[in-house]
Amino acid sequence: RVNELSTRKARDLKMDDKDEVRVVTCDRTELPILYRDDAAGCLVLADEDYEELRVPLIQLGDAGPLLKEGTKVAVLKHNGELVKVIPPAEIADYLQKEHRKARKEELQARQTSRQQAKEVAATKPRRVGAEPAAGKKREKAF
Q1: pTM of the entire structure?
Q2: The pLDDT value given to residue 112
Q3: Is the Cβ–Cβ distance between 33 and 68 less than 8 Å?
């Protein structure tokens, strides 16, 4: 399973035994956010040479709206190409807690609905009739 960094989607990738996989090492730098360009859907960072580096907000996922000007983010590059942007640890921790909280509420709601369905099923009247399984035989009409 592989995560596409540009779209943040998980993909299954099948490979043969003969296929070659290269592990790359990325350069990591901490860069400040200059401003957010909502019209273009990107964050503008200042690199080491004070050049503007545009990062698509989609690459940041849920962390994008939480990042403010002046916040430092970790940027991973390989051969000068942007690979990934990592938000500060405080924002990542906050998002993880919110995700866990939402998941817990979802599971509790599911459990409550199942319990209510069981209670409704228990209060429904059962059909009473001649059932062979109950030990009563049906009469045959000739």
Answers
A1: 0.60
A2: 92
A3: yes
